[in-house]
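quick q for whoever's on today - can somebody do inverse folding on this one?? i tried earlier but teh output was garbage lol. tokens:
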């Protein structure tokens, strides 16, 4: 048995099978490259589902983390610490909002957004107690808690986890008329991903996001944008909503906010929304801890330079030009996406998304399949053009083979 095989067998024996990882055992990583326990190198074209937008072992982020590790890592919110105010001020400024509520994982931030919207509905909008409704989209992916899977339309994510949390209505993604019909006087929020990542990198039709903005404003409903995967540079802008000049009431952020170093998530909104929470009503032991704040502050400083958004725009144009060429043959049926982010639908006759991912792995490229026949491409934004081209060459070879 090789070291990889031993490690995989032990993981299979002693971990719950809630994932089906590709058979690679990573031992180290830098930039866009990972190295396995046998010393083989792989180009990372997934980037931790966009948590690694700034690449593996990013020097600035590692240095920020190391410096903070030597000072103080956790106080709990029972006390103030000296990185908290800067983190909240800087993140609010990046978002053009007034307040931040930090959590750890994406799902916790979505839960926080749901709780905030409901409380806002009862305290500010005047919705009768227990009647608040949140409208969400078909094909959504917002996390894995019992409340969040309650409004998932993916049977794999939802089945056998009931009883489900009420108070959500699901409408087709991209359909403004359906959204308008679903919004009523008890609706407190519309919660959507500006681009649906897990669904296969689905970009809504032009005009949809501005339409959601207009409708929610007119009906006194909060517009919550889940930018956990789409935000922080991935699409070539700080937020995917920017491509349509839309500013939601609430940003939900995660993944890249922690730079792939620590879990950091947050809800960011104005005072009239986030101001509804009072001490003791909501919180998290680790939310907003000094280590998280130190790393996130460096992430925010990097985003402020605009360099990563520019890279995602330029390399993304190249990526999509190259992928468009693949749609001419019979292997690729559709390509979607924005910036350095693409969903590639493979003709099922050429293999499942999983099989394509395995063949790519054998050629030194790591991607992740979704929904049977789609593969997602989302390399770290620090990838260089030569490596991206090499990765695309491997994809072409796999599809032609
Ligand atoms: C759009 C979106 N929202 C929420 C989440 C949940 O984040 P986490 O896995 O950190 O809980 C994800 C994770 O993939 C996501 O893509």
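ok took a stab at it. sequence:
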């Amino acid at each position: 048995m090789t070291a990889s095989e031993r490690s995989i067998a032990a993981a299979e024996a002693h971990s719950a099978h809630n994932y089906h990882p590709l058979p690679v055992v990573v031992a180290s990583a830098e930039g866009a490259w990972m190295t396995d326990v046998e010393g083989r190198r792989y180009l990372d074209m997934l980037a931790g589902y966009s948590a690694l937008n700034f690449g593996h072992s990013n020097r600035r982020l590692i240095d920020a983390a190391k410096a903070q590790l030597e000072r103080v890592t956790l106080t709990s919110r029972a006390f103030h610490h000296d990185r908290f105010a800067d983190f909240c001020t800087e993140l609010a400024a990046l978002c053009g909002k007034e307040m931040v509520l930090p959590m750890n994982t994406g799902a916790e931030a979505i839960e926080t957004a749901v709780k905030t919207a409901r409380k806002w509905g009862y305290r500010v909008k005047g919705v009768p107690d227990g009647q608040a409704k949140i409208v969400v989209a078909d094909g959504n992916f917002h996390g894995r808690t019992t409340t969040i899977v309650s409004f998932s339309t993916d049977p794999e994510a939802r089945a056998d986890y009931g009883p489900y949390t009420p108070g959500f209505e699901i409408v087709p993604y991209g359909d403004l008329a359906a959204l308008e019909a679903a919004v009523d006087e008890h609706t407190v929020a519309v919660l959507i991903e500006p681009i649906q990542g897990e669904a296969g990198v689905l970009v809504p039709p032009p005009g949809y996001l501005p339409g959601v903005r207009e409708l929610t404003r007119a009906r006194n409903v909060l517009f919550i944008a889940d930018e956990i995967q789409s935000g922080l540079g991935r699409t070539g802008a700080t937020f995917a909503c920017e491509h349509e000049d839309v500013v939601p009431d609430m940003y939900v952020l995660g993944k890249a906010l922690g730079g792939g170093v620590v879990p950091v998530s947050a809800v960011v909104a104005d005072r009239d929304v986030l101001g509804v929470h009072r001490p003791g009503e909501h919180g998290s032991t680790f939310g907003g801890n000094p280590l998280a704040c130190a790393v996130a502050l460096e992430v925010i400083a990097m985003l402020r330079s605009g360099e990563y958004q520019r890279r995602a725009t330029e390399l993304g144009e190249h990526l999509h030009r190259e992928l468009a060429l693949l749609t001419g043959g019979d292997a690729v049926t559709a390509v979607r996406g924005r910036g350095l982010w693409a969903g590639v639908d493979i003709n099922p006759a050429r293999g499942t998304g999983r099989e394509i991912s395995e063949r790519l792995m054998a050629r030194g490229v790591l991607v992740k399949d979704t929904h049977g026949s789609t593969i997602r491409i989302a390399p770290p934004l620090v990838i260089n053009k030569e490596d991206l081209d090499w990765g695309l060459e491997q994809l072409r070879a796999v599809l032609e083979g």
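fwiw The CA atoms of residues 316 and 340 lie 4 Å apart. also Residues 3-57+307-400 form a domain with the Aspartate Aminotransferase, domain 1 fold (CATH 3.90.1150.10). so keep that in mind when u check it
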